Amino acid sequence: MKFSVSIFVLILLSSVAICVKAQSADDLFAQARKAAFDESNYPKAIALSKTALQGSPDYADIRVFLGRLYTWTKKPDSARLAFNEVIAKQPNYEDAYVGLGNLEFWNDNSEKALSVVNDGLKHVPTSEPLALLKAKVLNDLKRWQEADEVVSEVLKKNPSLTEARSLASRIKENSAKNKVSLSYDYIYFDKQFDDPWHLISVDYGRQTKYGSIIGRVNYANRFNTNGYQFELDMYPRISNTFYAYVSGGVSNTVGVFPKYRGGFSLYANLPLSFEAEAGFRFLHFSDNTWIYTASVSKYYKSFWFNFRTYLTPSNNAVSQSYALTTRYYFGGVDDYVSLALGTGLSPDDNQNNVLLNSNNYRLKSNNISLGYRKSIKTFNVLMLKVGYDNQEYLKDTKGNQLDFGIGYLRRF
After folding, report:
1. How many Å apart are CA 322 and CA 76, to the nearest integer?
2. 283 and 291 in contact (C-beta within 8 Å)?
């Protein structure tokens, strides 16, 4: 009987000791994280993590955290040992592969990083962080088509992942420094004009280290008159937060196009996936027209929202127009459907900005448009659009306008 009681007491004491050790390891882990993230004291965090592992050597979370600490303090060999020890004991431990893959990637060992990530995906095939890291590594290795396929698959499963959408944009830019596009618009009026309008646009864009540059030639047949316009758009990068839009155009057929047009906007990337913009547009027919614009954009899950206003001062009054645009992404950056609702005329709308000539911009207008954009084999993009405008072209006299558009873009 005494022997049984002794065994029971021994088992009880052993259980208490194990619980104390586990609790102690958790406390030390919490202290280590606080030292690293709140105090930026990595040596202290390393010491606390090592102490915790002495009592709980198989505590994988702490060992992976120790590997990350070694990575941040530029001790790659110690980091590799920590990550590999976890992988050897727990081959399905996702964070260990992510930590080791990032270590190799950040140390310019992209081939090794790819090997680590592929091994991790064999054991954790549904891992989003590993797939995203694989796309980054493939992009660095200039294997852009593979990178695009991987990141597109991530976006199909999680379209709201803004990091993946941003990476997809960079992959598109890196994989194809050049792009050409061709578009055609047919515009029908039931009352305002007897003949439909035809617009054709051809442009060439080039990515540079300073930002993108786009040259464009527009042709239009309006009012039974042919005309051409030549435009240049630039999107210079200023910093990680700011970039700009600078644009100018000229035409020798006033009325079909404005004689001169120009524009400038400053964009700011804000927290929580917001973007803000403020700028102006300039049109010259026989007189100058200055239009001021501001917008705010937001990514939310699989959606992108943009609200924009145009303000046109004239004769001690300000004409206002508004537009709300939303996109639903069903794949990569070139795979979405869009819906736009607006009032008034936009100087950025090449189909209708000629109507800003004279006093038309003071008249009422409501419009809606639907768009579809789909990438085909990575570097080809098909674009479709249909729009409807209810336009007051004379006081208290309205007409309807239908716009059908098709376009094709090729990156290379």
Report:
1. 54
2. yes
* Residue spans of alpha helices (H) in 38-93: 42-55, 60-72, 76-89
Which runs of consecutive H residues, i.e. helices, occur in 56-196?
60-72, 76-89, 94-106, 110-123, 128-140, 144-157, 162-175
Query: Angle, to 10 degrees, between the axis of helix 94-106 and the axis of helix 128-140?
Result: 20
Burial 374-411 (b: 16+ CB within 10 A, else e): bbeebbebebebebebebbbeeeebeebebebebebeb
Rounded to whole angstroms, the Cα distance separating 252 from 272 reads 45
Q: Do the beta carbons of residue 21 and residue 54 sit within 8 Å?
A: no
pTM of the model: 0.71
Q: Which 3-state string (H, E, C) describes 34-53?
A: HHHHCCCCHHHHHHHHHHHH
Domains of the chain: residue spans and CATH: 2-174 (1.25.40.10), 176-411 (2.40.160.40)
270-320 pLDDT, tens digit each = 888 889 999 999 999 988 889 999 999 998 888 899 999 999 887 777 888
